[in-house]
Structures are given as structure tokens and as C-alpha cells.
Amino acid sequence: MEISTLDLKIWRGDAKGGELVSYRVPVREGMVVLDAVLWVQANMASDLAVRWNCKAAKCGSCSAEIQGFPRLMCKTPLTEYGGQVTVGPMKAFPIVKDLVTDVSWNYQVNKEIPPFTPSEKDTLSSEPWRMQQKDVERVMEFRKCIECFLCQDVCHVLRAHDMKTAFYGPRYMVRIASLEMHPKDTLDRRPLLKGKAGIGYCNVTKCCTEVCPEHIKITDNAIIPLKERMDDAYFDPVRAIVRRLGRRERKADRP
Amino acid sequence: MSAAPYETVETDVLVLGAGGAGLRAAIAAAETGARVQVVCKSLLGKAHTVMAEGGVAAAMHNVAYQDSWEVHFADTMKGGKLINDWRMAEIHARESPERVLELERWGAVFDRTWQGRIHQRPFGAHTYPRLAHIGDRTGLELIRTLQDRAVHTKGVDVHMEVTVFKLLKADGRIAGALAYRRADGSVILYRCGALVLASGGAGKMYRVTSNSWESTGDGTALAYDAGAQLRDMEMVQFHPTGMVWPAGVRGILVTEGVRGEGGVLRNKDGERFMERYDRDRMELSSRDVVARAINSEVLAGRGTPHAGAFLDITHRKPEYIKSKLPSMYEQFLKLANVDITRQPMEVAPTIHYAMGGVRVEAETGASTVPGLYAAGEVASGLHGANRLGGNSLSDLLVFGKRAGEAAAGAVEVKSETAALDPAQIDTAIAELMAPLDRVAGENPFALQAEIQDAMSAHAPIVRDGPGLEAGLDKILELRARARKCGTGGSNTLAFNPGWHTAHDLESMLVNAEALLRSALERKESRGAHARSDFPGTDDELTNVNYAVEKTPDGMVVHAEQRPPMPDYLAEAVHHSYARYTPEATE
Lengths: 255, 586
Known about the structure:
The structure holds 2 protein chains of 2 kinds. Chain A has a 5-stranded mixed beta sheet. Chain A has helices spanning 33-43, 104-112, 120-124, 133-143, 150-154, 156-159, 170-180, 190-194, 207-211, 218-234, 237-253; strands at residues 5-14, 17-26, 63-66, 69-72, 84-88, 95-97, 100-101. Chain A is an alpha+beta fold. Chain B is α/β, with parallel strands linked by helices. Chain B folds into 3 domains: 7-234 and 353-412, FAD/NAD(P)-binding domain; 237-349, Succinate dehydrogenase/fumarate reductase flavoprotein, catalytic domain (Flavocytochrome C3, Chain A, domain 1, Alpha-Beta Complex); 433-561, Methane Monooxygenase Hydroxylase, Chain G, domain 1 (Up-down Bundle). Chain B has helices spanning 20-31, 69-79, 86-105, 138-151, 218-225, 257-260, 287-299, 318-324, 326-335, 391-412, 422-433, 444-458, 465-482, 497-521, 567-575, and strands spanning 6-10, 13-16, 36-39, 56-57, 120-121, 131-132, 156-159, 162-170, 173-181, 187-191, 194-197, 230-231, 236-243, 264-266, 309-312, 345-354, 357-358, 372-374, 462-463, 530-531, 544-551, 554-561. In chain B, helix 1 (20-31) packs parallel to helix 4 and helix 2 (69-79) crosses helix 3 (86-105). Chain B starts with 5 loop residues before the first strand and ends in an 11-residue tail after the last helix. In chain B, 62% of the residues are buried.
């Protein structure tokens, strides 16, 4: 059905507070939510703050909550809704203004994750590296991430409980998975996962997977395998016994 | 309004832009021990580099053993219709394999050959399969790798969502820059020993473009204002395949990778029309040729319902398409409701890239102003009259590194305490704040739309003298109006896009004026610059580039002779099988 005008409600305000403001927007065929928001900015409210860049779902800038659901505005056609749409900022992050939130915490977390670390042999070798397609395909899924932070926004550990000091969030589980499963990486990030990254806080509700615009199976392919790696190292009862026995034997062996 | 207070940040090398070139320059500069401050208009990792889809061109000969730097060099020169800076093209072809392998060692992941080497795909006007890639999101891989490398490199600091509006000189050298924070409008004075421009192109001066709001040509305008020469400004690339329908998505890029993977172009009669324009290379001809072919088909009445051409890859297996072109599949399904494994795409040319820009020295990226360097799209020379797909990502890596190193080197011979002129700073800040005092002035978004309409009408794919003249008159008129424009209604300093746009207009207008003036001077057709009143390529102009400079009397364009190629390069061009396609004089 052709819609001629849209009732677009946009949350306007700043850290001190705000409210939904209604705008009437003429609709063209194929318009996405971002088009409508930018139309308002150009024609009705020039100080409407919104982030966007590529307009093709490749940069992950225009994250917002559309009808309360975390989505990219550039990838959400208006035809999915009737004549009325409500757009608000991501709720897990502090508001800067209107649809713009302060996402700088995410960048700090990224700095804390030890970077890609190949072996010394690989580093010193002057030969181009050889890797098999099926080995690199495993991490390619994680490297599709466009850092829209929608998974961070929907994660209840960060959103409802605001435990940013205890848990890095789904985005950085994906990041750590892309490093841990890289065929040439040698670093062990399991202590980080158990400690500061707080992977134990994820209770596998899979909300992050549901909102990912790149369709990364965050929970199944990144978080659960990382939990398994971490559990293997720290909480496997059989290994714990073997480790304890091993220690005793070593003590007994001592002269 | 009196000048606002500002905070001061000291650094050795200031890098404008955090795309591929800016980040590569920052890493290179920091590795020499310099303090590096990166400043970008958006968030880190969102720069236009993410839009690069197809791959990065490097003669690693993993797929075609015959490939070599000489062949890559000749392809680049012939594709650029021989007006490239040949030394840049040589450096680029020689060094890009090393830069790609280096990226892999920093954690980038590329598609592999069966032997486990980096896979390379064929692309327009490259003689051999040459583009290292990962599906159709190579740019994202590149920027994420560089981003993570940069934030973990000692000495690199990034300021996000900060826009530079003025370059400052002391004793004829670049010694700083003024910028404002987008979030709250506060002003920062950066003091630096050297400055690298890596701010990308100016596609936003056209209506139909694959570029984002950021691409307003800030770097070229800032450099021009600081007295640096610009070059080849008439050369802007129309990418042959942008989306045309629905209207809301018009201009969004459809990667050349579709054609690289075997996609064919047809007109509304089902004819594979490229046969008539470039029988040898067909769809994989250079971008200028394909874009003009689609344009001609539409003008001849053989266009698709939405004035474009059909791009068809349905003869490939659905699984193959989804693995090689995943984001294209997703993009068309989601935005146009087209399943590209079963239906053809509708495409038309879209403004994509500026070959022209700041005039730089091939070895170092140094501009004509001491202390000012440029790399990536904002620089000029490598691509000549037409850029080959995949050459921009390698450009970023090769010349980003060189510019970063050279800028860091230039700092050593420079005292830290340059005497900046406080009056100049106050004037610049007052100019920045001025639109806030006249909120009722013209709406900057409306002016931006007028610039886009003027450029689309007067500097289209095929230009002519009277049209360019009319365009120039319009742009000069808009420039006068832009100087008096308001903010669209609000005088807040807090994240006010109307105010930001009022300021971006000046950059766009400098770029537009330079384009029109240079295009008027180049009285021939060559590469991206086609003129219906001068349809042939003039061999006399093969050694000529047009340089743009700011003088007390305004903008001046002058022709410059390029020195001839040394013999070994001339031979590489002579021996290559690549086609050189000058326009026939009718």
C-alpha cells in the first residue's frame, strides 16, 4: 500500500531529559527510516542530531531504536510500518543529544583487548603466509561486524543492569573470538574472558544475535565456543582433579 | 560575536581523517616515535573506506603468474589515459604487494587460493586477476585492521567527531589547525609540526553519489585556502553501477565485483551493449568507458524503466553469489526487494571518486606548502583521468605510509613553539560562529541541494563549454549566498547539523568551482572528462595537467607540462597488452 505522509515521532532532548516530537513527512517509494529522519533535519529541524554515513548498512553509524527495537535506520524500509513510526536513541548508552549517544565506552573496551599476536616464527618469516580458506572462513563471520553496537544496546547485562565495568558485551566477545580463532594468533585470552571481559555474565538469551544486522550468530558461534574454552581451562571437574593429582605427583617426585 | 575560548592540544603530526590513508599515515608516523593526533568527523571506523567492496589491487601474482609491477603500472597509466604522475604510479605498483602482505601480518583476513595464498579476483581494466579481497567487504577488513593497529600503537591518539575548519601557518609552514567538536561546538587549537590531510573526496557536491555526508571536500578546500596547489580537479569518477531504484536508495554503490564475478550489462532490449563500446574487455572495461556506455544507452532510449541498465549475474549459482557477493545480495533484497540470484539489478552511474586533489610530491606526499602532506583520495596524481577499481585501497596503504613517515621526518627540523598569529585565530573562530548569529538566513540544507542540482546539471558525465560556464556562474552566485547563510533555525552549539552544514558549504563550493574552472580549461575528452564540444582526445594535452591555485584575484587555473617518463617506464607502457582508449575525433 502506498503511504503518502508519515507521522514520524522522534525523541528530542539531551542528558537532562526530552520527549517525543511529531513530524509529518512526505513519503517516496523505497524510503527508509533514515531518509525520513534526514528529511526532517533538512526541512523542519536543522538541529536534529543524528549519526549516519554510508546509508548502505556498511558502516553501522545510524543505530537507533525503531518502535522500540534496535535497528539500523538505513536498512529499515518505512513500508514495514503503517503511517506511524517512532524513533529513539539507543538506551544502553548515555544520551548526547536526540538520536546521538555517547558510545565511547566501546572504544575503551577495544583498547583493553590484547591485539592480534602471531608467533615469533611467523613474524620473522619473510615468506607470505599460507592459510586455508576453511580456516579463515571461521573468523570471517566475526570480521563482518560493522560496530553498530546494537548488540551492546540490547544486551540486558549492559542495558538493564548497566554492568559495563563487569562485562565487555557481545560486540567484544565477537572481537575476542575473531582473534582467538584466527589461524595465526597465538595469544591466550582465556584469563581475560574469565576476568575483566566477564563472559560468565552472558546467560545466552541470544537477543544480540537477533538484532545483528550482519546476521552474525554471536551467541552460537562466538560466545558459546569462548565459554567452552574458558570453562575447559578453569571449571572442568575432571581436569581439576588431574591438575591436582599432577601437582601432588610433582611434589612427591621432588627429592 | 567575539571569538570563543579554545583549548590547545600539542602534537607532532596532526592527521586529518581516519580512513585507510589517515590511519596508515598515523601508524607510520608513530612508529618513528612521533606523537600523532588523528582527528575525524565521524566515529572511528566509519570512514568512507568501508564502502570499498571489491578489493585491493596488488601485483602479487598469486592467481596469474604472469603479473608483475610493470603490468600493474601500465594498466594504471593506460586506465588513467596517461596523465597520471608516472612516478606515483610506479611507486604504487611496486609497493602495493608489500603493503597488502603487511596488512595480513596485522591480522587482516583475505580469501585464499587452493594453495593457501591470498586469492585475487579480476576487475575492470586490470590485465590479470589482481584484487586481494574478502567477499565484497574488503574496505571494512582494511579499516578494522588499521583501526586496531592504530589504537594499539604507542603515540597515536584519536579525537572522534571533530571537524577542522582552518589550517594555520607560521613563517610559511603549517603549524596548526583549528577545529570544533561536533557534540558541543567547543573549539580546539591543534599545534603541530606537520599535518597530513587524509580527508577523502567531495562526492557530496553531486546529488546522486555513493559518498556519505562527510565527503564535502574539506581537505582540498583547506589546502587551497592555505595556499597549496590542487591538480586534475576536472577529473571526478562516475562509478558505472549505482542503485537507481527505489528513489530512496539512488546512488548507493553496486560493487564492480559483480562484473568481476561475471555479471553482464544489458539494455532494455536484452542486448549486451558493451560489445559496441569495448569488444575486448566488455563489462570489465575501465569505469569511464562503462559509465559513458550506460549513459549513451539511456540517452538513445534503450534504458531500463528507471533510466539505467540491467546488471545480471543470475547465470551464476545462488550459493556462489551469496558467498562471493554477500552484502550485494543482502543490499538488494532488503532495500529494493530484488533477489539478485534470480533477477537482474537495475543500475546507473553514480559519483564515486575524485581523481583530482592536492598536488603532492610522489615520494613523500608533500604538498606545495611546507609541512602539509596529503594521501589517499584527497591527493592527486596516481589515478590520472580515471581510477581503476582496487587502486584506491592500495593507494591508501602505499601513500598513507609514505606521507606519515615524511610528515614525522619533517617535524624533527621544526621548533615546537611556532608563533601562531592570534588575530588570525580570532578571525577564523568568528567566521565559524557567524552563522549562529543569523539563524534566519538561508537554510544551509537548501543551499546544499542547490549546489548538488547545479553540479548534476552543469557538470554531468558528458559536459560542454556553455554548460560549464553556466554552472560556474551559478556556483559563484551560491558562494556569495553561502557566506550569508544561517543555520536553518537554531543557534545551539550542541550537535547542530544545520550549523555544521553551513560550514561544509564553503568546502563544497571551492571544490565545485575548481572542478568547473579546470573542466573549462581542458578542451578535449579524456577519461572521466568528456566534452561534447571537444569529443576527441588531444595528444598535445597528454603531457598537461591543470593546476588550481588561490591568488589575491581569486581562483586561477594554469596548464603545466609534465616531464616525460624515463625509458624503462615508457617501455613498460609500450609492451603492455592493456588497451589505451583515447576518444576518436569525429
